[in-house]
Amino acid sequence: MANTASAEKRNRQAQKRRARNVQVRTGVKSAVKKLREAIAKGDPATTQAALKSAEKTIGKAASKGVLHRNAASRKISRLAKAAAKPAAAAAK
Fold this sequence. Notes:
By secondary structure, the protein is an all-alpha fold.
């Protein structure tokens, strides 16, 4: 329990930030899930659209400080690699 007015305010601010961060993180998870589903279906057009959407969502999360920029970069890189794998297999 906060003892001072400033501690109460910091608690309110932390709760607001946490709610916002949870919302952003949920959006990232949803975008990644949609991309993985598109990859599993094997449709290149859907996969590319989902990849673009996921990259945008992850980039925004990194710019807001919800994800570390290196973690976001790593996540985007791995998703792009996973999205490219079926296309490369189809080209062979």
